[in-house]
Design goal:
Length: 298
């Protein structure tokens, strides 16, 4: 059975529309010499710089039948409801070229081109490396010009050059503050010579959106922007294993694939509130059989 796997996606926003970029590939096509599946960046349904309403209608045209396996992502099938949630979320998080590159220091440029097929022969046209929104809009205009001449045998490629991409965080107001989080640690000191991180959220620096992105760019790090209001929550709730193979230990880390434990309470994952820890506890108990957990405050 052949099906598509989506590995990543990021929509680009301009003043005139949205371009839905996806990293995807077939489950049964592997790279030469190894078992790693081939994956490439392209534009969802070959759409370039279109209104959000057009993207929504395109997604709606794909649903409503008995077929509920559109593609796989994170080892799960994406059904009708999942497709619409994905489209809505990606439209809302669409960002400019500048914001995408600021949030992803490893992206130095975006490779844009048109893949034109004449029978079995491929031609690359309007091959451009863009660095800002103005250059992207100029490329879109060039792409549309040759699209009219070529017709249906042309495909837009917008390649970020990376496989893991961080969605930019857009502030709700100019006064909003953020914390920088990297690998579970928070930025507590920023100097020209380097950065200092700590697990203590209460010591984290509060930064504006512009300051946060400047640090990410200047120090070339991958970091998430966390709302500064989280700093003022207790962060004193942990989850303890009360029954099972790891009885007496604490939850240290939870991911899609596994759960890590520690017998040192100081290394335990701290949840911002008791209610957040309770919600996490219920989710963990559904995943792990023959084990019980309890939320405690430290």
């Amino acid at each position: 059975m052949s099906y598509s796997i989506m590995y990543a996606s990021q929509f680009i926003r301009t003043e005139t529309g949205i371009t839905p970029c996806i990293l995807a590939g077939s489950n049964n096509v592997c790279e030469a010499g190894n078992k790693r599946r081939v994956r490439d960046w392209s534009c969802f349904r070959n759409l370039v710089d279109v209104p959000a309403e057009r993207l929504t209608k395109e997604a709606e045209s794909m649903i409503g039948s008995g077929y509920q396996e559109h593609w796989r992502a994170n080892n799960k099938w994406v059904d009708d409801a999942g497709l619409m949630r994905w489209m809505k979320s990606k439209i809302n998080s669409a960002a400019t070229v500048e914001d995408i590159m600021m949030a992803n220091p490893d992206i130095c440029f975006i490779h844009c081109y048109a893949s034109v097929w004449r029978g079995l022969h491929q031609e690359i046209q309007v091959d451009t490396y863009i660095h800002n929104s103005a250059e992207f809009i100029e490329w879109v205009a060039s792409y549309r010009k040759i699209q009219k001449d070529v017709g249906t045998s042309i495909y837009a490629v917008v390649d970020f050059g990376v496989e893991k991409i961080y969605a930019p965080t857009v502030p709700h107001s100019g006064d909003e503050k953020f914390l920088l989080k990297r690998q579970g640690l928070y930025l507590i000191k920023a100097e020209d010579t380097g950065l200092t991180f700590s697990s203590d959220i209460h010591s984290a620096l509060e930064l504006s959106h512009e300051q946060s992105l400047a640090i990410i760019k200047n120090h070339r790090i991958n970091a998430a922007l966390v709302k500064a209001e989280n700093k003022h929550l207790p962060h004193n709730a942990v989850i303890k294993v009360t029954q099972g193979n790891y009885a007496g230990s604490y939850i240290r880390r939870v991911s899609r694939k596994d759960i890590r434990y520690t017998y040192n309470v100081n290394q335990a994952k701290r949840y911002p509130t008791t209610s957040a820890a309770e919600k996490a506890r219920k989710n963990i108990e559904r995943k792990v059989a023959d084990s019980s957990y309890a939320v405690i405050s430290i």
